Amino acid sequence: MKLTPEIKSYLYKLNKRYYKSLGIKSTVFPTLCFTVTEFNKIEGPELNKFRKIKNQYGLVCFNKKSCTMFLNVRHHKDVAELYSTLIHEMVHLKHPKLPHGKTFNNKINNIIMSDRY
To answer: What's the predicted TM-score (pTM) here?
Structure first.
């Protein structure tokens, strides 16, 4: 998928919306980046372990001073997939110690279902 200004704007709006609506307690609003090149330009020791990841759909890294959310646009086939990845990363941000599994997936599904009604 190719990143367009419209898609970028849409993702920025979603990022802001979910950060507020989910009541995320992180002290820092997430910075979004959409390409490996953008991601590699962001400084932070917590990001170093992710620098060599090329096939990642998305990830979120945060500490008390910074928060970076990487949405690798080129690995997504459409906007719906990007939306799902953003929601997935927001759940990580809201519940940093929650592992992937049934509870994690239920949280994602609850967010998606609340958007539909």
So the answer is: 0.82
